[in-house]
Amino acid sequence: MGKVLLKDLIYTKIKQMIIDGSFAMGEKISERSLEQSLDANKAPIRDALKRLQAEGLVVRKAKSGTYVFSLSAQELLDLLHFRFVIESQSTILSFTNNHEKLQDEIEKIILKMRLALTLNDGNEYLRLDSVFHEALVKQCNNNYFVQSFERIGAIMDTARNFLGNNLEHMQKSIIDHQNISTAIKDNNIGRVVELLREHILPDFGAYWKNFDKIENGKLIQN
Question: Which of its termini does the chain have fewer beta carbons within 10 Å around, N or C?
Fold first, then answer.
């Protein structure tokens, strides 16, 4: 039992290091360095990396090593479009099935997001950003939508922390989130979906604006 718990602990720690940017997107991960920093042997670390590979968070290259995933311009576009479809449709169900609970939860998260901005705590703000969107989905009472959203959750969180960790993005982001919250309160699901489209998709969303060029097929932050 202890070994299982250790494997899970190591997996969770490495996963969080990827999400919060301790390992940058595209960066090579040294198993030896992980052994030293996490005070663990090879077995749980290799097990964790296999699990993370299955989730798309790391890529193992023959004769080269293990790398944190990276996104090409097209892959980011595909991710954002997939996210919008899953999130908007599950939000419609959440709105229909659990409107009052959804409204209450979203308003509480908005208050915490505003506090994080006031305290200039960007990391906490981005964590709450993720919680906000999870809340839109989890009230839908449809495991297929929930599991589909969870499938891209860690990848999206990693991209959000990389693309959105600046004051300009967060100042725009809080307005978007507040508008979504207000539309939920006003019982206007059409407006909610419209706002999600503008918030997420590249024609409107803030993520795409944080890049100005592509280098070797990868997005480069400006």
Answer: N
